[in-house]
Design goal:
By secondary structure, the chain is of the alpha+beta class. The protein contains 8 helices and 14 strands. 27% of the residues lie in helices and 22% in strands. It has a 6-stranded mixed β-sheet with strand order 2-3-4-5-7-8, covered by helices on one side. It has a 4-stranded mixed β-sheet with strand order 1-12-11-9, covered by helices on one side. A two-stranded antiparallel ribbon has the order 6-10. A hairpin with a 5-residue loop joins strand 13 and strand 14. The longest helix has 20 residues. The radius of gyration is 23 Å and the shape is globular.
Length: 328
């Protein structure tokens, strides 16, 4: 079995709540009113939870609390640009999900061992529709018919010229999501958010068609996932066994100087190869450098526009960060 990293196309933030055994895959708030919807996933099930001020008319305090939380969702900052301290977005999610704890466990119980989940399964979960209401002064889940609600779709349509002929195509059913810990099955989700798909594809195409050293430590595109309607669902990227450790976290004050120098030399060498091939990184910073299990440094994220000069300036700042006493 070949391990790959999967990058799905989704335009919402993903918030994991291990205390409730679920994660929020989408939070939609209408600009013209105070209606909202949370899409919550657990073990292959999706709960579409709608909320609106009229749901809480029986309890003015609950209604006001909802409106206060909603203001946090619409804007994380106050008028003077400071973070709002009275309300917390995660508190809003916890407030809305707490009444669903027993429901999650009964409707979406833990699956049998050796669970097999594909990208298709992730894209097509079994959906349950509920509204959150105030009943006798308590927040209460009420099952609904789901009219006007639905999970946010994945996938974008791009011209075939955006793809390299060297990239193999896969259907969502052909890509199995690797689950090493049974508890991880609750939170099977895309690895990252991708917004500027076309620019990143252009860079990956340039990388594929360049004569780079096959052992170069960069995140390369190895295949694409499309559905039956030719919608681009995601990218199959080099799997980097790093447990999400970035240079920003690895470069601590007590890290040996020889290890820091090794990372700097590796990143500098990789960036030199890219520039010689006419490829711009575009987002040079410690957060975009992964440190794998062998203590080697990998360059990732090619979705931003930039220049060679900008890359070199970013590299200089990265080196300064690595050797600074406050690097954490």
């Amino acid at each position: 079995m070949v391990l790959l990293d999967v990058e799905l196309f989704q335009f919402a933030d993903w918030a994991i709540f291990r205390e409730v055994g679920a994660f929020i895959s989408a939070c939609c708030v209408r600009d013209d009113d105070a209606d909202s919807q949370l899409d919550v996933r657990r073990y292959g099930k999706c709960f579409c939870i709608t909320m609106a001020p009229e749901n809480f008319v029986d309890s003015p305090p609950i209604k006001q609390q909802y409106l206060d939380y909603l203001a946090t969702e619409k804007s994380d900052v106050t008028d003077n640009g400071n973070m709002a301290e009275d309300y917390n977005l995660e508190d809003f999610y916890a407030w809305a999900l707490e009444p669903y704890l027993l429901l999650f466990e009964s409707v979406a119980p833990a699956p049998k061992p050796n669970l097999r989940i594909t990208i298709y399964d992730f894209l097509h979960p079994e959906v349950f529709h509920y509204s959150l209401r105030a009943v006798d002064g308590e927040l209460t889940p009420v099952q609904s018919d789901g009219r006007g609600a639905g999970i946010m779709p994945l996938g974008i349509q791009l011209d075939n010229s955006a793809f390299s002929l060297a990239w193999p195509l896969f259907l969502p059913k052909e890509i199995e999501i690797c689950i090493t810990n049974p508890e991880d099955a609750i939170f099977v989700s895309p690895r990252k958010v991708l917004i500027n798909a076309l620019r990143e594809l252009e860079n990956y195409k340039r990388i594929t068609e360049s004569n780079l050293d096959p052992d170069i430590r960069i995140c390369s595109l190895l295949g694409v996932v499309k559905d039956d309607e030719n919608q681009l669902i995601g990218l199959l990227l080099t799997y980097i066994d790093c447990d999400f450790l970035t240079l920003a976290c690895a470069a601590e004050p007590d890290t040996p100087a020889s290890t820091k120098q090794k990372w700097v030399d590796q990143v500098t060498g990789t960036l030199t190869q890219l520039h010689e091939a006419g490829i711009v990184w575009g987002d040079t910073k410690p957060d975009n450098i992964l440190i794998d299990k062998n203590d080697d440094a990998w360059i990732i994220d090619f979705e931003k526009a930039g220049t060679i000069e900008g890359d070199l300036q970013g590299l200089e700042k990265t080196v300064e960060y690595v050797f600074s006493e406050r690097a954490e």
